[in-house]
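Retro notes
What went well: the complex prediction finally ran end to end.
Inputs used:
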Amino acid sequence: MKYISLKRMAALAFTCVSLVSLLCGYALADAIFAPEDDFYNSHAGECEYVNRDYYANGESGYTEFFTKPNGSSLGFADNGELFHIQFSYKLGDELWGLAEYSVNGNKLIARNGDVYKTAWMRFSDITPKFDYISFDEAHSSEYKAYEGEYSELSGVTNIVMWTFPNSGESNGTIDQVDENFAVGSVYTDIDGVQWSFVSYYYGMRNFWICLSDPTNTDIAAKDVPPVVFNTPEPGSQPESTANDMTTVIIICVAAAMLCTAFAFALLKKKKNQNEETK
Amino acid sequence: MQLDFIWTLLISLGLTLALELIFCFAVGLRGSRNLTVVILVNILTNPPIVLLNYILGKTSDLPPFLIITVLEMSAVLVEGLYYRSYGENIKHPFALSFCANAFSFLTVLIINHIV
């Protein structure tokens, strides 16, 4: 089309910054991945890093996605679909989250492979998946400081990294710990099993290990708070809440065409008058 | 669609007008009447084409290349008809319309590729 893509301008700016950074020998460790989103690119300084999973849970039974906060509607996801919110942006009193999604038929689903887009959704339409932050909020008063010397982990291989104590959900294993390994808080669950939180270890962040049984991969989920999803009315269809200005824009274009037609009519009249005078 | 789409329409129209006026002037089109016709035909065709391209791209499963080709060829036809009816001494109105549109379209493609 006859306009320059903002994405390409952003790509050029990013390339320039990258080149300058390289030339200056300047680099940032643990860089935050910046999404390919026009609104994010133009408001990056006002966005907050979130990096958490949220379930779609709109009140109507569906969750609407937008091009930008208060932007055009992109479609709907079914409640219960899990999305990873990378950044948030506050517009007025409303908080919006940025996520990647793919399309399956007429439904929006979590990012599936390399074919994906970005969209914004209202935080009031999503519910956080219980994770280490949620666990921290619920149990931080029960934490104690670790006072051992890591004898539980000495010589142990394949230590399981759990998302939080008794989550039943692991994020792989650590081959072995070395002198750089350090735990923060220790939590003892109702069965007397000890868990400890690790904020960082060789690029891996925010996980728990079971000090009492560090290599057991089969610790089942226990007492994980369930998510209550809003369900749609039987036979109901999702309805957009976007402030759609399509009709106004079509009227503006039609008005411009009418004015042009009027200008052509004047040209014709003038031409005819000129011909008559000749 | 949000109201800021108006900016997209205005930028597209401005760029197209600039490129097609440069092209028409370069190929020897002169006279205030002819240049007025160039401006008017672009105001007549460009905004609806950009708007239709957006709407069809969102609502149909047609390939983008097909949508753009059909819309651009429609623009060439309409602009050619207007050059023939309202222009002064334009010998090949449809060729002028085709070349001017091809020039602006390809120039923007190249700009997009470079940027």
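What we learned: Chain A is about 25% helix and 30% strand.
What to try next: split runs per interface for comparison.
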